[in-house]
Amino acid sequence: MIAETPKNKPRFRLHPAALLNSERLRRSLVETYEKKGNLKYAIGVVLLFLSIASLVYTNDLVDKLEEREEREVRLFGEGLRYIINSPDDENFNVVMGFIQDALNFYQIPAIYVDENNFPSVFKNIPFSKNASLREKERIVEAHLAKMKKEHPPVPVQIGEGKVGYIYYSNSFLLTQLRYYPFIQLSVMLLIGYLAYLAFSAARKAEQNRVWVGLAKETAHQLGTPLSSLMAWVEYFRSDPNIDSSIADEIEKDVVRLEMITTRFSNIGSVPTLKQESVSFIVTSFITYLQKRVSSKVHFYIHDQLAEGQTALLNKNLFEWVVENICKNAVDAMAGIGEIHVTLQAPPSSKEILIDITDTGKGMTKANANKIFNPGFSTKKRGWGLGLTLAKRIIEDYHGGKLFVKSSEVGKGTTFRILIPAKVMEEVVEQDQDIES
Questions:
Q1: Helices (H) and strands (E) in the chain, counts
Q2: What pLDDT digit, counting tens, does each position of 47-63 carry?
Q3: Backbone φ and ψ of 424, nearest 5°
Q4: To the nearest 10°, the Cα dihedral for 61, 63, 69, 70?
Q5: Is 104 in contact with 123 (CB distance < 8 Å)?
Q6: Helix axes 315-332, 278-290, angle to 10 degrees
Q7: Contact yes or no for 66/174 (Cβ under 8 A)
Q8: DSSP β-ladder status, 337-344 and 297-303
Q9: 418 CB-near residues (< 8 Å, 6+ apart)
Q10: Measured between alpha carbons, how far apart are the two ends of the chain, in Å?
Q11: What residues form DSSP beta bridges with 113?
Q12: What pTM does this model have?
């Protein structure tokens, strides 16, 4: 039988709308990232399709233009053969003008080498205005050597078993078209990269809005039960039949909840950092936490930091990071196992390393790569926000790093926190410099 609550005792209840609003915010966060991700992939597919289509079309155009230029060179060869074999024909000038116009129209560089291997006719070879005969010969020889590597020569039958050859290069237009697909692909990649940056910025902005909204809503909903809990603490203390230590412990949790409420309400504003002892903060918080999780979870702290080792921290936020990682570890171990917290500062580094290792179920490499993504959670009703916020707190607010150092399925996971280090002596010296 359940006893009725006395009228003079404080009561509270969480309005169903609070749960509904929280669930809507969670869904909004997940849907936002799904939509942004799908849109990003859609843009990537469209850019890839356009790039491939453009490359195929341009290559086809280049092949057709190359075939046309080869036909013009062969026509030039036929004209030369006609002129050489019929030097007295009255149509000589007409034929010569026609074949010259054909090559000039397409600007095709061409050199005719006679049966004695002498370059006797050349078209569209660039010479400077004041070039001497010897300089022109060197230029023609250089172009000829290049042409021999580009295309097979076009033979010109000049009678009596004698054969001349026409060597040629691609026109400037064709050369441009050959390199155009690569330039076009580079432009496409640049557009894709800029689009990625734009959508990443939009996603981050949307993420910030959802985070702030979620945090403000959570802080607001926690306000009512916190007030009632404080009243319950006072009620327990006023009853001499109730052990006062119970009220003391409840008060500690209420103070903790108030601090959490303050954290959420301050989301979106820049936190204040102070020089804090990393060892003291971590040790104090782990001592507090281990009384509030399963008794079958054992915590071990391996403090290798030098005395006076400090860092610029926001105590409340930094404890939040440790709390998120440790609670995820407890969940991963199903309430049974060990958590090892190692604090160290290598001599060659100016950073403090904090490793949090559990003996839980571990993660696959794929999950380890997504563990910090908003909305991603391996738990059925997980929000997928804890580690995301922890990473943001460490990297954006403290200038450090948070990542999965190692994880093995069935053996456990190690998270590593890196934060800039500073010893107490340096802090004192800086304060003295500022005062002076």
A1: 10, 12
A2: 778 778 877 888 888 88
A3: -60, -35
A4: -160
A5: yes
A6: 40
A7: yes
A8: parallel
A9: 351, 352, 353, 354, 394, 400, 401, 402
A10: 72
A11: 119, 165
A12: 0.51
- Three-state DSSP string of 211-235: HHHHHHHHHHHHHHHHHHHHHHHHH
Contact 332, 408 (CB under 8 A): no
| Ramachandran category for residue 74: left, alpha or beta (phi over 0 → left; psi -120 to 50 → alpha) | alpha
Give every strand in the sheet of 422-423, ordered side by side. 274-277, 309-313, 422-423
* Cβ-contact 366, 375 below 8 angstroms: no
Backbone angles phi, psi at 298, to 5 degrees: -110, 130
CA pair distance 391, 97, nearest whole angstrom: 76
Q: Are 368 and 404 in contact (CB under 8 A)?
A: yes
Strands (E) in 80-141, as ranges, are: 110-113, 119-123
Above pLDDT 70, what percent of the chain? 78
Whether the CB-CB separation of 356 and 338 falls below 8 Å is answered with no
3-class SS string, 340-409: EEEEECCCCCCEEEEEEEECCCCCCHHHHHHCCCCCCCCCCCCCCCHHHHHHHHHHHHCCCEEEEEEEEC
Distances (CA, A) of 190 to 59, 181, 184: 21, 14, 10
* pLDDT of amino acid 359: 94
Residue 90 DSSP SS3: coil
Which residue bears the tokens 């790569």?
Answer: 369
Token duo for residue 49: 């399709």
Is residue 420 predicted with pLDDT exceeding 50?
yes
With beta carbons less than 8 A apart as the criterion, state whether 107 and 124 touch: yes
Calculate helix-pair angle for 92-106, 16-85, nearest 10 degrees: 160
